[in-house]
Amino acid sequence: MKSDDENLLFADDLGKVDALNAKFYGDFPYPWPPMVFESVADASLFRQMLAQDVGDWSNEFLPGKGMRIWVAGCGTNQAVFTALKFPNATVVGSDLSAPSLELAERSAKNLGLQNLTLRRESLNEVAYDQEFDYVICTGVIHHNADPAAPLAKLATALKRTGILELMVYNRYHRTVTTAFQNAIRILTRGSTDFRAQFPIAKGVISALGGDGLMATSLKESMEWPDAAFADMWLQPVEHSYTVESLNELLTLCDFVLVGPCVNQFDMVRYAYLWNINFERDAEIARAYESLEDKERWQITNLFLLEKSPMLWIYAQRSDSPRLRKSEHQLADEFLAMRWARIRSECRSFVRDSTGAYQQQPSTRPFPAVAALRDEAKVVYEALNAQRPMKDTMRKLGISPSFHLATKLRLELTTSAFPYLRALT
After folding, report:
1. In the list 61, 88, 93, 334, which could disulfide-bond 71, CB 3.0-4.6 Å?
2. pTM, two decimal places
3. Which residues pair with 37 in a beta bridge?
4. Are 296 and 226 found together in one domain?
């Protein structure tokens, strides 16, 4: 019996849901075209940052030449962004939506990308077998009839040494959206005419009025681009997860949860830390920090609810030769290692009034040091590349607690915050 705590009215058959998603994202190609694409001069930078994300400080497992990347469910621009970030890699972008792929192809040609191939195909039907070093699948499998089916395909497509970047919806982020989606399904008698539902949804929002949770959340989206509004409020199938149920899904498909992936959405709201700082109560802090990663992250998910981080993670195959490192181990290694500041340049391609992207005549320094905050800024400015990180912190009088070391590792050495590279 289906419950209404998830939007699963149409989640009966893989093929039927594929057809629904192809229609939905054909009507509303997602996301909308960005104003700017960027490219960093250091072509190997994000390969090294990806390795650092999972604690592979010497970059032992990702190939320097011939790296292959699959953006599984690429939408209108994710594969384009990826091809720009990894210019030495071969990138494949897959999607069900022909209009989305057409927009991606147009951007790729405009930018002169030679390392990107786009394919219209279902994640449920591909036959890739250990072809990719890095698979990106964010915001996709939770829109399937059975998310385990495409996730198993991702496992087969990934090399044993590869890395999966995955995002599924956080259950505690989706209460309002799921309620609205189910209500629209009932109001429109199970219709799949998404264009006809669009004005109905906007009319409902106007009619609701008031200051309740749903009314407030909905009103904020009235001025969004059509694709963003539709993806949030009208998506036909939507599963969601907790840390615990996501880990169960990964295990079922022979994946191991490696750790959090800092993403642009959590960065905006400073919600990318999967650990709670219980510094006001030392006993609780000790009990919390003594737990295994997955238990600690589940507690964070439960305590913070809608304010918890997105379930945007890295995973690897269960038969991977790469050792999965705990956050405690990563924190200790971060403190014990020497680090060098990253210095490169970034060029921008800005969309003009015709929709074409024009390369700007000048570059800017990369990364943007001015964006550093709090302890990360202090540590970065005082960094001594000849000494371990813990010596820099000791000289500054900063206690290298587990919580702070984890925070600094994320804010200085990862793909989201590419400020330091490991010296090994």
Report:
1. 93
2. 0.96
3. 349
4. no
